[in-house]
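Troubleshooting log. The previous structure file for this entry was overwritten by mistake, so regenerating from the original sequence record. Sequence copied from the archived sheet and checked twice against the printout by T.R.
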Amino acid sequence: RYGPIPNPTEWLLKITRLRILAAYWQIGSIHRNEKYLVFGYRDPNKAKALVARNSDMKIIDEKDIYYKIPE
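Regenerated output below.
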């Protein structure tokens, strides 16, 4: 009715969704390390469940999950 959603609003919605998902999965930080996104997790059980749902993710140590960024 009012036309397409403006780009800044689209990004705000995407960031909000990411924050909600991070809170659900107990992800405390996200950063890039060369070819990987590194997720710092708080709850080992939630981390195991998340990795079980995504074969591209791997638990590296007691606090980090690595996800290889597709080329």
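The chain has a mean pLDDT of 95. Archived copy saved in two places this time.
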